[in-house]
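Example 4.3 (complexes with small molecules)
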Amino acid sequence: MKVTRREVLKTVAAASALAAIGVPLTTVVKAADNEPDEWVKSVCRFCGTGCGVMVGIKDGKCVTVKGDPNNHNAGFLCLKGALMPPIVYSKDRVTQPYIRKKGKLEPASWDEAMGLVASKFKAAIKDHGPQSVAYYGSGQALTEETYLASKIWKAGLGSNNVEGNPRLCMASAVGGYVTTFGKDEPCGSYSDIDAATCFFIIGSNMSECHPILFKRVAARKQANPNVKVIVVDPRKTNTARIADEHVSFKPGTDLAILNSMAYVIIQEEMDGQRFHNKYVTFMTNDKKKVDFDAYMKFLEDYTPEKVEELSGVPADQIRRIAIMFAESSGAMSFWCMGLNQRIRGVWANNLVSNLHLLTGQIGKPGATPFSLTGQPNACGGVRDTGGLCHLLPAGRLIKKPEHRAQLEKQWGLEPGTIAPKPGLHTIALWNAFSEAKVKAVFVLCTNPAHSLPNANIYLEGMKRDDNFMVLSEPFMDALTVKYADVLLPAAFWCEKRGTYGCSERRYSLLMKSVEPMGECKSDFDILMDFARRMDVDPKVIPFKTVDDVWNEWREVSSITPYNFMGITRARMEKESGILWPCPTEDHPGTKIRYVRGEDPNIPKDYKNKYHFYGKKDGRAVIWLRPYKGAAEEPDAEYPMVLTTGRVIDHWHTGTMTMKVPELRRSFPKAYVEVNIDDAKKAGIKNGDDVLLETRRDKMVFQAKVSDVCRPGLVFVPWYDVNLLINKLTLNAFDAGSKQPEYKICAIRIKKV
Ligand SMILES: Nc1nc2c(c(=O)[nH]1)N[C@H]1C(S)=C(S)[C@@H](COP(=O)(O)OP(=O)(O)OC[C@H]3O[C@@H](n4cnc5c(=O)[nH]c(N)nc54)[C@H](O)[C@@H]3O)O[C@H]1N2
Ligand SMILES: Nc1nc2c(c(=O)[nH]1)N[C@H]1C(S)=C(S)[C@@H](COP(=O)(O)OP(=O)(O)OC[C@H]3O[C@@H](n4cnc5c(=O)[nH]c(N)nc54)[C@H](O)[C@@H]3O)O[C@H]1N2
Ligand code: SF4
Ligand SMILES: [Mo]
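Answer. The structure with MGD bound is encoded below.
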């Protein structure tokens, strides 16, 4: 490894100014310029910020990484991105296939392993029908891989059981955008950051989870003292450290706070009447159109005084942030899992967009509701190309006959090839697998044994002998390996080629820079091998390379508002990321959607400036979404709230970042964050062992006593495989998006 922490910190000088406003130094690094033989263009394989990287190659090995100066990150990377190379050469790499025999994984040839996989899937389909097999994928797989898997299952095997970790992550954002605008994905782009004057950050710890984007926000604030930052989070996170207003509240009550902000905005006559008269429909929860007066009436339940009582936020603070938002020349909202991982996740998403539609803070530079995507390719691979059980590529829906027919035609397949019923969503799928109703599942680029909520149920299910799990995974120490019946050695990141599409609809190419280790194969090669062995109709898989898949996707998208026609492979090799829609090769890509002159889907002579073409009447929706509590509220038995989330230096289940000494040292072990007052009451001191107990399980963590959590709330990071907090979390999910409520459950704690 060439970039040491010391070197990295040396280059951090440019960022020191940011430290003055509270951004931790480690969030902003520019990797040292080691001189390898060759630099190959790629993308960081961690967060949804999607930073461009250059991979340094020496003697056929990846030796270093630096930021791509031509991508949106302008050469900057956070530590995770800068320290990727040692992960590739970890001693824990899986380098050959394995088959579980008498409880133990034994080395096998590719032919034996894939032969067994195909026979298990064939037997399941023969005996129990296509709905007994499933694919469980990832927002970290390449676009081409997810598109291929989804097509193999839906068009080749007749099963719509295609799911993946984006259901745990972005499903509520999809639900929010689709119900509000009629189409998924953000309407703005990162460049809005440079024009915004008010940042409304709710349920997102951007400084740790999207560090390079947060750096851009902080730089904007630093350059312009009038720029305001509002952070709405029950924890005083690093992100909150640059806030003008940190709004702390009883977890879950933010729905009421958002409605209260709307109430204040109308009371103060700061709503954009001309905008919402022309471009907005008001709609109740049961989809009845109502008028503005009905909306005002609905909001009367959310006066700042009433909401203060419910949420604990001072009424004056609600007034202040509402006015700050409405009076700014450009308000940009960011949100992430604090809103999505909730049983009211879709509603929470709607309520943020409501504020933009009510004030007209949309579709002009700096004004936009921007959902932060977690994984590097959850937007790209999964949401855009339809890698979920109810979706087809480019926003089409399985349940719509005309969408299925259109796609069958584009794919050159018989009408009726795609089954008309959506498959099982993630929790339903793993419930069915645990009951051995789903007999065979193909898990790829995700670690469900560690990441599913209420994990004991699913760990028991994975142990059964009468169901079958094949796992494609690069690292032996991922928890799911312990439960896999067949383990396939996956090529990792720089060992393969394909695209990632990040939060802002930007697609960048990852070029293959080194050969896969040992017998490892790319997930594309693995899936193609699987499809052939399953006797999938060759018309379904007419691909020789990942580039063939990409070109088919461009064609498939071209008759929809997604339109990727102009994003050719040749362009992607030259340019560092292009934003869709991009209809032609000379189109620069789209920064603002739904606005005439910006969005190529709107005719140049269209009568209005805005056109929300995802809705039949061209109007976006302001939803009358009431406040409703969490699935499991604190009570006398379990009086506190447990929330789980992330730390800057680890990625999810730790299979990658735990292998980097610098990252492991900074967070070696999970802990529980306890508020000072709660700690005092329970006699807990920093470093004490504390027993955490929910209705599902109990476990001991070391206490970190601080003012980060508000009283009544504890936080546990979920990266540690030895302290599996998901045994304690809840698998209740949002009725619309089916996304689980990882962010809130009831807990009791005591010193041991
Ligand atoms: N370092 C690092 N970065 C990552 C990842 C990683 O593993 N490590 N993972 C990536 C992925 S896939 C994702 S999805 C994102 C997640 O990114 P974030 O969503 O920003 O991260 P989390 O820590 O899961 O949760 C965010 C915040 O939600 C708050 N929260 C809890 N309950 C509530 C509530 O009721 N209301 C509100 N408004 N907020 C609440 C928590 O206090 C927490 O600060 O990060 C991405 N980036
Ligand atoms: N308690 C709690 N649980 C959560 C969350 C939370 O906030 N709290 N957040 C949820 C969210 S938002 C998410 S996104 C999920 C994430 O949950 P997971 O997807 O299960 O977590 P990762 O660690 O990202 O798993 C990715 C796996 O793919 C492997 N891998 C890496 N590269 C490749 C590759 O190229 N090919 C293949 N085949 N494998 C590869 C990695 O080694 C790793 O084992 O977790 C969810 N779980
Ligand atoms: S901000 Fe995200 S994409 Fe950028 S280097 Fe860090 S982990 Fe990678
Ligand atoms: Mo995520």
